[in-house]
Amino acid sequence: MQSFINESKRIIRKASENNKLVIFVGAGVSANSGYPSWTSLVEEFARGLGIDTQNISSEDYLKIPQYYYNSRKEKDYYDVIWDKFNVNVKPNDIHDAIFKLKPYHIVTTNYDELLEEAARNQGVFYDVVSKDEDLPYTLNNNMIIKMHGDLKNKNIVLKEDDYLSYFRNFKLIQNYIKSLISTYTILFLGYSINDINVKYIFQWVKDILGNSFQQAYFLENNQNKKFNQVEFDYYKNRGINILYYSETDEIKYLKKSIQFKNLTDERAKNTCIFLRYILDTDSLNKINIDYAYERLKNLNNLNKIFFQNIIDALDLETPFEENDGTIVYSHFLLEKESLELNTSIVTNLFLEIKEYDNKLNKFNKCEDYKEKGELKKEIDFSKEIKVNLIKQVLYKAGIKKIVARNENYIKEVLSLHRKSEGLEKERAIEYSFELNINLYDKMDELEEYISQFDYLNMYRCLDDMKLEDIDGNEEKFFNKAYLLYKLGEYLQAYEVLKRLSQTCFLNKKYYLYFISEFNRYYLGHAISTFNIFSISMLGIHEDIQKEIREEIRKIDLDNIYLKLPSSNRVKLLFLKDILNLKFVYRKIRDTADLKEKVEKNKDNIYIGKGSSDGEIHKFKKNIEDFWKFITKNRLMLDNYKELEMVFYNYIESALLSHMTKYIEEKESILGLPGKVIKLKKIDGFTLFVMVNYSNIKQIKYLFEKYDVQSIKLEEKALEFVQDTYDNVINSILQKKNILEAKQILNKFIYILSRIDVGKELFIRLIDGFLKVIDNYSIELDKLYENLLIFIIKQNNNFKENISIEKIEEIFNYMIYKISSNLEKDRNFYKENTAMNFIRQIAFIMDNINQDYKFKDDKNLKLLIRQMEVEMHLYILEYTLIPVYKLVYGNLNDNEKFNKRHFSVYYKAVIDKIILSSVELEEKILEFINKQAILKNENLEILLLNIAYLILNDLIIQSDKFYKFKDNSEKFSFLIDIANYNYDNFELEWIFKFSDELHGRVYKCEKAKIIIKEKFQQYIIQNECEKHTKNIFFRYYN
């Protein structure tokens, strides 16, 4: 109960400081100044009527003033009231204490003016509102609201009719009070817990707002009344937290120190003491195990915690004033894994934990039965769970050691010694607690797979998670959804999250529900914004995409927190930073600041600092914690630019620091040795971040900006390279998350070009390339380009790594691919890319060893023969161009018109060397007729050339060629796009169209619609090249 009271005290005090405290003042407060209580006033009416009140219920008490009013009428009714209030009284100590709490408003059911007088005495300004007409004309922000009227206006609420007609007579005041209760922190003073007024007030609000209003606080000032769990829970469910005076441990020392001016009643004194207790900063400055446990236990739901989460949860105020008046601006100083304590309030907490651990250790080690029994009496074993949870939370924030350095305070508690010279020697008490490292320090299996791009093992984990029932397996399903997300199975991940959210809410697992809905919203948003090509590659139909888009529109993340039961909201307050992405935006700002510091301090000479100090190492730790926070808590944010910005800032800073020239001075300006602190070697995590959170354009830009020619790796990072490369290659070979794996491979090879990989790993990398190259069709040119850069850079910077035999293997493979391409349907784009690659490889081989002889040159000889034929035809055609005019006469006169004559005519007309000729068209017509009869295999090529001439208006009598439409579907399509029978259309035709021809097709609405439909089906069913995608989005989407 004490921890609950401590927390309630903190909330009330904070509300006071933030103008959010409203105090309700009952008759009990005025009664201690000499005015009648509500009960004694009613009993006065009962005596006038001869009624015995001993056995009358509180509800019947309302009827007694009503009986008197009905019997004696208004004058006699008010005479009784005036007689009771016509006494000379003054505000008491409770009134003074109320105003020291600085309430925003005071609401009272009292009719007297003691509150107004107390306000004047203390020099504070409160407007008085005792009837509806007063409310609109208040000038001050602060009010004393006399909700039951006052004697001056003769509008008091006392008899039954007054209560029944209250809404009509005090409509504005009643509604205003309801709004206060729903949004402000409420403290009741001077009331009995059974007071009819308290019941009515809360019933009003409950009828309108249900349970969605602030919990109020009620002081039970009877020091003999012990905590009653049944009573406590009953009123808590009605919106009232009872604070039992008898359960407040720290209040006793206050009682002795307070001098009361005009209070004699013990319960009244207790009320005053409690108000002083709320104001007491000394008692506020005590955090114990119970308090820390209550504030941190829900934070422990997170698998990784930011230290700032702990500070926010403990609600530690700064600047902080110590007992001696010293002002401290931070309770902690976090250095790597060590937490330094700066104030007595936090030092006390860890000393208490240390003392508890010492007792527990002594008990566990004790072998004497009797002594162990005595030790057992001194230990509260219920605290063991609390202490362990506090340690877990700290450990999840990366803290492994606690150091206390507040010298004066620690010396007093731990009796540290002074130096003989009489000067204070700086000493430190270190308190390191042990935790289960396996649980909290080790990277979990899934994180390890993610950080090494081990998609095969991720799929294996997924296979092991074949669970049917979510109920009872919520955590496992949460991990399953995250695995699906990391493997690019977005639709499946979304569906799992959808089911998970429903189950978690029903089972009141609100933390998981919260994160699940957060992930569903951001994942659903990503799916809903994908273009048609992306969703087809992901296997998501357009109708499903539209359905998801509608579903996420209904997810209001701002309301998810507010929709949780009110009792759970405070417990999950730390999640609001996740909900609104505040933690990401804060990290963007922090990393921008750190980046600026790294840039500013890169050339500074540091004295007396280790190699792992400096801004860049703080930055690295900061980013590692951020990645762990996202990954361990399974947040699905990889698709968002905001996240990329955070990691980009670190990548740039890491490269800047790594490329900074290292300087070490034996003697600096101060006469001491100093050095530049830089990132001497890149670790595996930094490599992972570079590959995972940046694209190749960004990496190339940064490498160029900082002239990155060589990157030095830590020894373990080279192991990371080997394992990760193997994982990516195996994923491509097994076709597991193949698109993602290919992108990773491209970036990886480019980054490795700047790293001394050694000969063994060089060979391994080339072998991997040769294994996967046949799996590529998309972005093949990028793979060639990056592998070429890798080989060139390795040759330039790390010649000893080069294996010329492996380069020959690549060379022979590429020659074989080009030879095969020349023999089949030619793809000039791929052929040209491959030829450029071969030229560069040949140059490198020559540079390495000019006398090197190929072990196997049969593919090279075959390619040379093929290229000789191609070159002969090329030279033959183009040396004829200058004599086309002379040949024109021969073409016209030649009786035997053949393919070569047609080729010469076609080229001459296209190049505008000669004009179209009716006579030659007749010869061509006759020639094509013969080819059609003979069913010559070259007929379609001839007709396509004719179609090209027709489309460019270079055929004079084009209608004569229409008769060949049945000989070639492609020819039929080209010469009559609008009327073509598209049932026979083949999509492959358009891949060789010129831009001009695509433009013609695009202008025909019928053609455009039909081709678009065929194109969409093609994209869904096939792995498309970039060129193909560009055609679709440029002309047909």
Short account of what is shown:
It comes from Clostridium botulinum B2 450. With 1037 residues, the chain is mainly alpha-helical.
Mean pLDDT rating = 81
Main sheet record: 7 strands, parallel
Ends: how far apart? Answer: 67 Å
Structural domain tally: 8
Q: Which value, in Å, is the CA radius of gyration?
A: 43 Å
Tell me which CATH architecture of the largest domain applies here.
3-Layer(aba) Sandwich
Q: Roughly how much helix do the residues carry, as a percent range?
A: 55-70%
Which secondary-structure class do the elements indicate? mainly alpha
CATH class of the largest domain: Alpha Beta
The low-pLDDT segments are: 408-442, 825-829, 872-885
DSSP strand count: 16
CATH topology of the largest domain: Rossmann fold
Shape: elongated
Strand content: 5-15%
Count of alpha and pi helical runs: 52
**Major sheet: order of its strands?**
3-4-2-1-5-6-7
Report the CATH superfamily of the largest domain.
TPP-binding domain
Pfam families: SIR2_2
Domain Deacetylase sirtuin-type: 1-426
Keywords: NAD
Protein name: Deacetylase sirtuin-type domain-containing protein
What does this structure look like?
The protein folds into 8 domains: 2-35 and 90-284, TPP-binding domain (Rossmann fold); 37-86, no CATH class; 289-440, no CATH class; 445-569; 581-680; 684-802, no CATH class; 880-976; 977-1037, no CATH class. 60% of the residues lie in helices and 5% in strands. It has 52 helices and 16 strands. A 7-stranded parallel β-sheet has the order 3-4-2-1-5-6-7. The protein has a 4-stranded mixed β-sheet with strand order 10-11-12-13. A 3-stranded antiparallel β-sheet has the order 14-16-15, with no helix packed on it. α42 packs antiparallel against α43 (828-848) and α42 crosses α44. The chain is elongated.
